[in-house]
Amino acid sequence: MSVLLIIWILCTTLDLSDSTPDECEDEIQRLRAELKSLELRQTKQQQLIQRLMNHNQMDEHSLKAGSFYDMGDKQYMDCAQIFKNGSTQSGFYMIKPLLNLARIRVYCDMTEGGGWTVFQRRSDGSQSFDRDWNDYKIGFGDMKSANGEFWLGNDNLHYLTSQDDYTLRINLEDFEGSHRFAVYKTFKVDNEQNHYQLQFGVYTGNAGDALSGSYHPEVQWWASHQGMKFSTRDRDNDRYDRSCAQEDKGGWWFNRCHSANLNGFYHRGPYSAVTDEGIVWYPWHGWWYSLKSVQMKIRPASFEPNDV
Ligand SMILES: [Ca+2]
Fold it and tell me: Helix (H, G, I), strand (E, B), or coil: what is residue 267?
């Protein structure tokens, strides 16, 4: 603007022998146009820089989230201990629950207050969850990618939940981008001899209490997962005269059969099938909507979160 001002001053106040007022006006117009074009280019460049910065941050974030953090020889019994030790990046770590003979690789979610040991994740349908008893026993899936799908394993889940009083948190997302959660106190998974029987305490959250079926007392006798044994397609421990795991395509603590089926088949949103085999959380989206992503994770009840 200062250049325009100078020209305007020159044109209006000084006697420029070789410039007519029209030429001055033309020059001002030309410079104005040039200035506008420069401003436009600058805006575009700023937008480009911002986009590149965002892209880098996303890359950095997803890279970090998929990172493995080597904590040396020091042993941690869960992700809460790692968090308390000062490691606050989400990613893969080695832990050794007290009953485990060896260390195991786990995904630690250090968001939502931090210290969460994640034992199940669904994100894109890239892994099959329709698997046998042994796969569910030892765990399976992608334990390397930032957003990989996996099951940590029922033995590990038993070891973890035997060593302390754990709170379970389930995060759910649908294909419309909405998020819900369910928290259960005193989450426990029994040992293999007892078919990894499920126990959990009081529910809080906004997804609805699918695990206990308390959303509708009349359905509890067949829809509650409280006290249910784990079933897979090759081990039927459910309370149904056929096999829930076979019909609903995943291992789970089936009753006859379920109001939550988070290891179900990865349909995308509303689906139709012979049975309610999708990734179902009944109180939120009913039996005929399969969720986009799920995360199941635990943290000691005694953990004091930083910022929940
Ligand atoms: Ca059965």
Answer: coil
Centre of ligand 1 from the C-alpha of residue 285, in Å:
25
Task: Tell me which H or E stretch contains 81.
Answer: helix 79-84
149: exposed, middle or buried (Cβ count in 10 Å: 0-12, 13-18, 19+): buried
Asked whether the predicted pLDDT for residue 7 surpasses 60, the reply is: no
Beta-carbon neighbours within 5 Å of ion ligand 1:
236, 238, 240
Token match 């420069």: residue? 38
What are the tens digits of pLDDT across the range 162-185?
999 999 999 999 999 999 999 999
Cα 161 to middle of ligand 1, angstroms: 26
The hierarchical CATH code for the domain 67-300 is: 3.90.215.10
Query: Residue 10: its pLDDT value, please?
Result: 56
* Cα 115 to Cα 79: distance, rounded to the nearest angstrom: 5
The CA-atom distances, in angstroms, between 19 and each of 7, 23, 25, 170 are: 11, 6, 10, 77
- Structure confidence by residue, pLDDT tens digits, 56-109: 555 555 556 679 998 888 999 999 999 999 999 999 999 999 999 999 999 999
Q: How far is the CA of 179 from the centre of ligand 1 (A)?
A: 33
The pLDDT confidence band at residue 220, using thresholds 50, 70 and 90, is: confident
CA of 197 to the centre of ligand 1 (A): 15
Q: At what angle do helices 2-13 and 21-65 cross, to 10 degrees?
A: 170
| CA of 3 relative to ligand 1 center, distance in Å | 85
Q: Is the dihedral of CA 150, 123, 205, 304 positive or negative?
A: positive
